[in-house]
Each structure stands twice: as C-alpha cells, then as structure tokens.
Amino acid sequence: MSNYQRTITYEPDSNEKLTLRELLKKWLIPKKWQHFLRVEKQVTINGQYHPFNTVVNAKDVIHLNFDFPPRNDNQTYLPGKNELNIAYEDNDVLIVNKPANIKSHPNLPTESDSLMNDAESYLAPAGHPYMVHRIDMLTSGLVLISKTPYLVPIFNRQLTTKTLKREYLAVVKLLKPINQSGSINLPIGDDPSDVRKQRISSDGLAALTDYKILRKNNDFALIKLNLHTGRTHQIRVHLASQGWPIVNDVLYNREKPNGNMMLCAYKLTYQIPFSNKFRTTEIEPPTFMTDFIQKKD
C-alpha cells in the first residue's frame, strides 16, 4: 500500500454513534484534508464512497487516501553517523532516546550531525523520518518521529490539544526554598540582551509548568515536570526564575557547568492515530542524573 493510504477497522468507544464527518474530526484529520477526501471521494466505507453524514458502524472498514498536495514530504536529511537508541517503534512512529548535546534536527540542509540525520540513516532506503517535535540540544530524552508524512499534522494537533504529552525530570540547585509541588505560571519572551536566551516577560507568551519533588537535600532536588505549554527553554527559564536553576545549564545557571545539563524528557504519551487508545513510553533517567543526586545526599 502507498505511503499515503490507510485502512482502519473501526472500533467505537462503548456506545458511540458517529457520522463519518464526526469520526474524521475525532481522528484530528485537518479540515482541508476532510474537504479533499469528500470532494475527490478518497474515503470509503467497506469499499464504497458514502456521504459524510453516514453513521459508521463497528467493524466497518474505512479506507483513506491522503495522496494529494501539498504533501508533507519535503523534509530531506543527509544520512547521520550515530546509532539510534530506540525506546519504541511500530509502522507509524519511532520514539528515540536522544542523548544530551545532539541537536534534534539540522539547522542547514548541509548538516548531518542531528537526531533526524541519524533517523534518516536508520530508516533508509525504504523510509524517511518526519519531524513532529523537538527538544533542546542540551536536553536528553524521548523524541517522537513520524514514519509517514500524513501523520505529522495529526500529531501536531495532538500537541496543540495536549493529547501528546511529555514529562521531564530535572536536578536543580536550590538557591531559594521550594515547595513539595506547585505550578509556575509566567509568560516567556525573547531576551534582548542575549539572542540565545529567553526570559520572563510581561509581554511574552503564556507558559505554565507543574513540578513535584521526588528527592531533595539541602542543596539540590530531583523534580518531575509537566508542561502545559511548549515555549522555547520553558522549563529552564521557569525553574531559574524561581531560584532553582538546572544543574549544568550553561545559559540559566550562573555556576560553571561540570558535565551534561540535568534535564531529561523521560515519559511520552500520545493517542495512537485512528484509534481511541493511548500509548506511553518511559525510560530510566540518565545515570549522570540519578548518580548525582545520590552522591549529594
């Protein structure tokens, strides 16, 4: 089957009765794609085209053909040189544990030293990677990569609706007191004094981070973090603003770094495309983080 076609056997939630239009909306298929599927009759139920107000029944076989412009297949990457640390893989996605100090994607087409370059080598020659989201170069942890271009807008909608969630672990220096748990709700904008940095800014973009302490001593804490928004350097800026800079953060911690930044995206949850089910992938935090907090006790 083409890289742009999909066949699904419909499994409804309990007693739900959805029309084809409602089902495509629930699957987060973009409106412009729904329009194409309807006008070009590129969606069928049990082999036949039906109007969008048709109710879909359990075990109906739905076939979708996304082979239309503009197709999201213009991402091309040079082959990389490093092996991937794969946390999960199926026909749709590749979830990779990115090491610290490797970029998620190249800044220029001529670069070959990013995670997406390594994914290009891994999937070649039969497939290619399609970027869904990124994490900072200095941050380690889970990154979801799509194997099929038509899933990228669907995953993007999951990011927007917070259906695709990421959880982080960080080791912070306690320059100020910290509660056992809490939220940081402060807007973030560009730092005019340093193009590399962001800062808390009244005219910045809304940003919300939840935190919870897992381990703590007088000087350091290992904390779990949930993002409600996805601003650049959000965790790093929010924690530093409270007097809890991340250990070895070269931008937001005034202490000279001694090793990798202690921030890891350790857990990723997403809705399996064209289904009602969710999948969670979780990794152990890097040993340099867990060893550090244990040695400091």
TrEMBL record:
Domain annotation Pseudouridine synthase RsuA/RluA-like: ranges: 92-241
TM annotation in the entry: none
Domain of life where this protein originates: Bacteria
One matching Pfam family: PseudoU_synth_2
Reactions that this protein is recorded to catalyse: a uridine in RNA = a pseudouridine in RNA
InterPro entries in the record: PsdUridine_synth_cat_dom_sf, PsdUridine_synth_RluA-like_CS, PsdUridine_synth_RsuA/RluA, RluA_PseudoU_synthase
PANTHER family: MITOCHONDRIAL RNA PSEUDOURIDINE SYNTHASE, RNA PSEUDOURIDYLATE SYNTHASE DOMAIN-CONTAINING PROTEIN 1
Similarity-based family: Belongs to the pseudouridine synthase RluA family.
Protein's UniProt name: RNA pseudouridylate synthase
Lineage: Bacteria, Bacillati, Bacillota, Bacilli, Lactobacillales
